[in-house]
Design a protein that fits this description.
Layout: H1 2-6, H2 28-32, E1 35-39, E2 49-53, E3 63-65, H3 69-74, H4 84-97, H5 101-116, H6 136-147, H7 151-155, H8 159-166, E4 176-177, E5 180-181, H9 191-199, H10 212-215, H11 230-246, H12 251-255, H13 261-272, H14 280-300, H15 312-316, H16 331-342, H17 353-358, H18 362-368
Antiparallel strand pairs: 1-2, 2-3, 4-5
Helix pairs in contact: 4-6, 9-11, 11-14, 11-16
Length: 371
């Protein structure tokens, strides 16, 4: 988690990206000091289950699964909170209430900034004072959101809808894409990853298009700040995500390179006997088909280029801290490159008839009445 902060991610203070005091608390050796048990899915080499225990302080007695990177960020850096025990408590509450930790943390961080800017008053927040770094109101807001009580009834709608209900310019502080809250990666610090957020059919999902080239430098390092070639790179990763998911694999397994394409082909052929699965180019074609079909669903429902965007803060406000200091997100240029890489119409973002027919999706082009 500390590593991602040094790479320009682990966004702070509702994506304002200010320096986070006491960020050292997120170093792996400190997190590891709470671990009491490891585990994982049957037969998986990742072994990503970890269970933590707190033994002192106001949150002593918690034994729960580890708040992973996104959760540490959503209830940590994005709220200016570095109290690990409080983050563990927030994670446990969300699990018990059945709340998504990313969406819950992001909508709460919006509320914190709205209070900070004077847009939300103490009385509108049921008497809560939302001060950056203070975790106590976070825990109360989780409860209120789950029970739809007071201000929680509005925040439970998510950042986009909550901002619309609040009004008074609140939309400017809602960090979402297509209504889905942005996860713990700053688009300005990894341009292809940000382009994936903007063009994802379901919004800024942390489980779609995770760009390991930019973020981890594997299988080869790509400059995260340049815009060049990011359309093709985004397409590549999105299609791979769709392909591995269609094959039933966990995102963590393929993004960490544990099941490379040649191995995937062997596994699928061995399990099914289908000859085409031995062909890597066929598997890549499957991923591209899936992504184009998902896009077609959105086009049918009225979505287009204007919906492939990011919050104003990401597009206009330069990052104030290294290593991405001074970076903004050059959306229009990269969207043009992305649509060209996909064979879609650059002006509208619609898949072209030619591309859909190449993918064996003529019936989709017919339904969309594409020329």
């Amino acid at each position: 988690m500390y590593l991602f902060y040094t790479l320009g991610h682990f966004p702070t203070y509702n994506f304002r990206q200010l320096e986070l005091e006491n960020v050292d608390r997120f170093k792996p050796e400190i997190i590891a000091s709470y671990v009491v048990k490891y585990g994982g899915c049957y037969g998986c080499a990742m072994r990503c289950w970890q269970f933590l225990k707190t033994s002192k302080g106001p949150y002593a007695g918690i034994v729960w699964d580890k708040p992973e990177y996104e959760t540490q960020w959503a209830f940590g850096g994005n709220l200016g909170v570095t109290n690990l025990e409080a983050i563990m408590q927030a994670n446990m509450l969300c699990d018990r209430y059945g709340l998504d930790t990313i969406s819950t943390g992001v909508v709460i961080s919006m509320a914190y900034e709205l209070y900070d800017k004077g847009i939300l008053s103490k009385s509108e927040l049921d008497g809560l004072e939302l001060r950056w770094g203070d975790p106590e109101p976070v825990l109360e807001l989780i409860r209120k959101i789950a029970l739809r009580e007071g201000i929680g009834n509005i925040l439970a709608e998510g950042t986009r809808r909550a901002a619309e209900i609040i009004g008074r310019g609140a939309e400017k502080f809602a960090m979402h894409v297509k209504g889905l809250e942005i996860p713990a990666y700053d688009p300005r610090a990894a341009k292809a990853h940000g382009l994936n957020f903007a063009t994802s059919p379901i919004g800024a999902s942390h489980m779609m298009g995770w760009n390991y080239y930019e973020i981890m430098g594997v299988p080869k390092k790509v400059d995260p700040f340049t815009t060049e070639g990011k359309g093709e790179l985004t397409k590549l990763i999105q299609d791979e995500t769709a392909m591995y998911e269609a094959a039933g694999f966990c995102q963590f397994v393929f993004s960490n390179g544990m099941v490379p394409l040649p191995l995937l082909a062997k596994l699928l052929y061995s399990a099914t006997g289908i000859e085409e699965f031995r062909n890597i180019s066929y598997l890549q074609l499957v991923g591209e088909r899936v992504f184009n079909l998902e896009r077609a669903f959105n086009v049918r429902e009225g979505l287009g280029r204007e919906h492939d965007t990011l919050p104003e803060r990401i597009l206009k406000d330069p990052v104030p801290r290294p290593p991405a200091k001074g970076q903004i997100f050059e959306l229009d240029k990269m969207l043009d490159d992305y649509y060209r890489a996909r064979g879609w119409d650059v002006k509208t973002g619609k898949p072209s008839r030619k591309k859909l027919e190449e993918l064996g999706l003529k019936y989709v082009a017919d339904e969309l009445r594409l020329e």
